[in-house]
Design a protein that fits this description.
single chain, about 180 residues, mainly alpha, about 85% helix, elongated
Length: about 180
């Protein structure tokens, strides 16, 4: 926590990506794990490279530099991992969205209430990543008491998908 408070500008982009990913771990816990594995990586990598040194006969300074570089790569890997997951989610939502919109407009054409349209999409097993975003909308409405347009706006603020941010689902639902 002290590290996060001391360098908020470093961790803000990480936390922003963390919101878009929906990882099953708290963001502060993730930072703790990131720091822990980075600290552990240095001695483990030093020992590993010294053992490899017996086989490949590398100079000691090269082994030490390789250990430090690999430790920094460990930190960078942890830092960029949520961003990578966010990109994957964005692609999956983009692939699911056209089919979900057709599904939603077909259900809306039957005169269904907008909330029930979202509930039907969540119950279907077709839209795995989009379902997470729709479940957030339903939670905002059913658990927190927000109206549908506010719930859509709040989910649009944290979704990795540019299409959802632009309100394609909101256009279909609010047209009903």
């Amino acid at each position: 926590d002290k590290l996060i408070q001391k360098y908020p500008q470093v961790f803000k982009p990480l936390f922003d990506q963390f919101q878009r990913v929906d990882m099953p771990i708290l963001s502060h816990s993730y930072v703790s794990v990131m720091v822990f594995f980075t600290i552990i990586a240095l001695p483990v990598l030093l020992v590993t490279f010294f053992i490899l040194n017996l086989v490949f006969k590398l100079p000691i300074p090269v082994v030490i530099v390789l250990s430090f570089v690999a430790t920094i790569l460990t930190l960078v890997g942890f830092y960029l991992y949520p961003s990578s997951l966010s990109g994957d989610r964005q692609k999956k939502i983009k692939m699911d969205l056209p089919f979900a919109l057709v599904h939603m407009s077909a259900v809306a054409g039957s005169g269904a209430h907008p909330i029930s349209i979202f509930e039907l999409l969540v119950e279907s097993e077709e839209y795995t990543e989009l379902k997470k975003e729709i479940r957030k909308i339903l939670n905002y409405v059913n658990l927190f008491g927000y109206n549908l347009s506010t719930a859509l706006r709040n989910v649009a603020a944290t979704t990795p998908s540019q299409e959802l941010k632009q309100g394609r689902i909101a256009t279909v639902v609010l047209a009903v």
